[in-house]
Structures are given as structure tokens and as C-alpha cells.
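CORE FACILITY INTAKE
Project code: CF-77B
Contact: R.S. (postdoc)
Sample description: multi-component assembly, two entities in total
Requested service: structural model of the whole complex
Turnaround: standard
Below are the sequence entries exactly as provided by the requester. Do not edit them.
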Amino acid sequence: MQETRKRFHDELASLEELVLQMGERAQVAVEQAVRALTHRDAALAESVIVGDDSLDATYKDIEARTFNLLATQTPVASDLRLVFAILHTSMHLERVGDQGVNIAKMALATMSLPASPTIVSHLEEMGEVVSSLLHTALEAFASRDAELAVQLESMDEPVDRLNRNMYREVATLADDLQALEWGIRMNVVSRQLERVGDNAVDIGEQVVFLRTGEFTEFSDASHPGPPEGS
Amino acid sequence: MSEERRIETAGLNAWFGAKQALFDITMSAEPQSVTALIGPSGCGKSTFIRCLNRLHEEVRGARVEGKVLFDGQDIYAPGTDPVEVRRRIGMVFQRPNPFPTMSVIDNAVAGLRLSGELPRSELRARGEGALQAAGLWEEVKDRLDEPGGRLSGGQQQRLCIARALAVEPEAILMDEPCSALDPASTFRIEELIEELKSQYTVVIVTHNMQQAARVADWTMFMLLGEMVEVGPTNKIFASPDDKRTEDYVTGRFG
């Protein structure tokens, strides 16, 4: 028995390699955006914003090449699932890049405003968790590890919790207008980090699809599970 | 219409002389659906389909063991007339094989003529009906007396389908019916298969996996005379259970 579609499978492998690299770059963009914010590093924030063009270009490249494979190679079975998962994952990563840009823009907009150390430390914590979520999602993708992918949902929980509490923390700054302005922007940053986490979880869903062919949604904001402890 | 036009095999084995070609195949082809058989050359899919209407035994030295049930009856039971089996379970072959000098309408009723005397008007009516059912009527209604050999390849194949339908079968077997046709003719036959399945149990052998994906409700993958996997077509082409099916449909071996 011999491989009969080597060129097609080589292209598929090359696209997977590209999406995994894209994932690393998106992860670094988010890490740098958070670091630019917490260290008030304007140059780093600007480099994240500029660097997003290359993530967008990679996404367009992946989109065009997967479209071409669908048009010309009629992929089936695990090949078809991989084409699908690559396209979806690259879309999620493109969004992650945008979320990094949004955080970097907030960093630039708040350079001269007073910061709350508590909120900064919470955002740092969120940044670390979502970075690790992205890393785990990509690792699960590369190794087709559905069990690892399923864990992303619970790993994301601290991010959701910190994000839910953020507005209360911001509200405590209400007495100082400048601090409040900073805080309102940080609420946006928190929301962006929460979205990065969700994108990582969605990539995990693609890994499960890749392994099983089953379309799953680990959780659905409009249909929450039973409350904790019930 | 009977809902019981299911074709079932149980422990089906077949030989060419001493060489075993099929190993213990148990499957069923559901009424009002299309079942596609796929697999590499020599895997036994044509042999298998030819066991379903007792054509296999026409080869010298060939034999069959196990059961093939149609409508619950064993078509290999003693006393069963193989000609009657083949009337009820018709077959369309790879290359269009109309009688080239016989007229279009006479081709359509050629099988019917063999199965008994019918008044000329009745023959013609049945022939027209069969040409309509085969999606050929509009193209040949003004050429009914021309030789069948003058039709295009795709039309000739639909003429052969009409000939198979004229004897009022209950199931249709197709052995690579499009492999000698161009893409447009292929798509016309595929559309026709979709229409035929509302009335007939259809089993099709195809080398063209995308054809199986397009026309079949069920797909069965065969390898080295064995049935590896059978399932809903979208499952076979989206996430098959067996690694060998996966490797075959994705072209990791051929």
C-alpha cells in the first residue's frame, strides 16, 4: 500500500504547521500587550499593533489555501476535518490577535493615568492564564489530544470569574475621576482577555471535532449549566 | 409499494474455481435507498454485486455459499428460477451496451420481449414509460425508430437503464454505470439514480468515491474480498470507524 495523494497531504501538513505558528505568534501578541499595559511600555504596545498585520496576512493565506484545497482536492474523513479545524482555528487566532491589539491600544490610552495595583495584578493573572490556555489549546491541536482540549473549559474558569468581578473593582475607583477613567478602560481590557480565553476554549472544541467528528460546544453562554453546588 | 424490497446477505462467500473472492459478507441494502460499494480494484465489489442477482454463477467454475435474501426470500433456495431473480433485480453495466442496430424503442423493450408475448401497443406503451423513467424520453421521442447505436454514450447508458426498468424490476444493481461517461452524462445518471431510489432498492458499484458520496445513502467499503465497514455515507466520508476505510478514502493507500 502506498500514499497516493502526497502533494495534497504535504500541503495539509504545511497548513497545520502554519496555523500552529500563527497560534504561537497570537499568544506572544497577547502576552506583550498585557506586559505593555502593566509596564507602561508604549513601544511594546505599538509593536503589537503593527505586528497584527502579519497575523491578518497569515489568516488570509490560510483561508485562501484551505479554500483551494476544498475546491480542488475534495478532502474527506480526517483530512476534511483537519481542513475545517485549521480554518476555524485560524479565525479564532485572528480574533486573538485583534484582542491583543485592543489591549495594546488601551495601554497607550492609559499611559498617563493612575493605576490600581489590585486591578493590575488581576489583569496580569488573567493574562498569564489565557496565555497558558492558548498554549494548551495549540498543544492539544498538534497532538490531537481531545482529553487535554476538554480541560480548557475548566482552566478558563478563573478568567471568567476575574472578569465578572472586574466592574466591582473598577467601581471602587469612582471617587477619583482619572483613576475611574483608567479603570473603565481596564474593564475593556479584562473583557478582551476573557474573549481570548473563550477563543482558546473554542480551539479546544475544534480538537475534539478533529478527533471524533462530533461538533461540540463545551459551554454555551445562552444556555448555562446548572449553578455550582446544585 | 412493498417496503420489504430489502436485499440482505448473510455469511456470503464466493469463489472463482479454487480462489475465494468474497469472505463472509453480511450486510443489507435498504429499500428506497442507494447503497454504494467502494474499494480498490480487485476487492470483490463487482463479484459481490453479481451475487445479488445470481449473475456470478454464470462464470465457469464460480460458486456461492451463504444467503442472499430479497424480500425475505433466499434467491439461492432450491427451485428458484435465476431468470426470474434477474428480472426482479435488474442490472446496469459499466459500458453502455444497447443493441446497436436495433431501434431505440425496440432496445427499451428488448428485455420485456424476452419475458413473454405482449400486444404491440402494450409493448410500445411500456417502452415509452421506461424511457420516461430513465429520463431519456424528451431527447429521443422523435427518434424512436433510429438505431440505438446512434445515441450519445450517456443516452445509450440511459437507454440501458430504460431496458432494465421496462421489465418492472424491484431493485436495480449498477456496476460502475458512469465510468465510461463524460461528466455531464455522469451527473445526469446521478440525478436519475436519485429519482430511481424512490421506487427501487439501488446498489451501485463505483470507482469514483465522490460519486458514492454524492448519490449513496449508505456506503460499504470492501478490501480483499471482505466488508471492512458499512455505514451512512456521510459517516464514511466524514469520520469512518475503521482505519483502513480512513486510509482508503483519504488516499493514504490506493
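Facility notes:
- Residues 226-230 of chain A have pLDDT under 50 and may be disordered.
- Residues 177-212 of chain A form the longest helix (36 residues).
Invoice: internal transfer
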